[in-house]
Specification:
4 helices, elongated, two-stranded antiparallel ribbon, 38% helix
Length: 125
């Protein structure tokens, strides 16, 4: 994904470690071909099972950040069942990065609130 929440920050972090990064999204032409050539796939497109079996290649690492509800069940953006027998590693949904994402969100909200509280005190005095 290309979002400001996951896609772009992940791309910047990977670039900082000298990775060659390709940002894709739900409208990328021939997404499967591009993803099959990747060593690491960070999936955060916001579309359940967007990344299917045709997208995976042996040895890949898939980090699924997607959180979608389908028929009352939480699923990721990657088709876990299709990937599991092919890739070297894949994060499950639920139970993968979702808890980390939620914890960081709460942490950022608290930090922002504390910063706002400090600014309010500075303007009063």
């Amino acid at each position: 994904g290309r979002s400001l929440v996951v896609g772009r920050p992940a791309a910047l972090l990977l670039c900082a470690k000298d990775a060659t990064v390709t940002l894709c999204h739900s409208r990328t032409k021939d997404l499967a071909s591009t993803l099959r050539e990747s060593e690491i796939i960070v999936v955060a497109a916001g579309r359940a099972k967007l990344v299917g079996g045709e997208c995976f290649a042996p040895g890949q690492v898939v980090i699924d950040v997607g959180m979608n509800f389908v028929n009352g069940k939480l699923v990721g953006d990657a088709d876990f069942a299709a990937a599991e027998g092919v890739v070297a590693a894949i994060t499950p949904v639920p139970g993968g990065v979702g808890a980390v994402t939620a914890a960081l969100l709460v942490s950022n909200v608290v930090r922002a609130a504390m910063g706002e509280k400090r600014r309010a005190k500075q303007t009063e005095g």
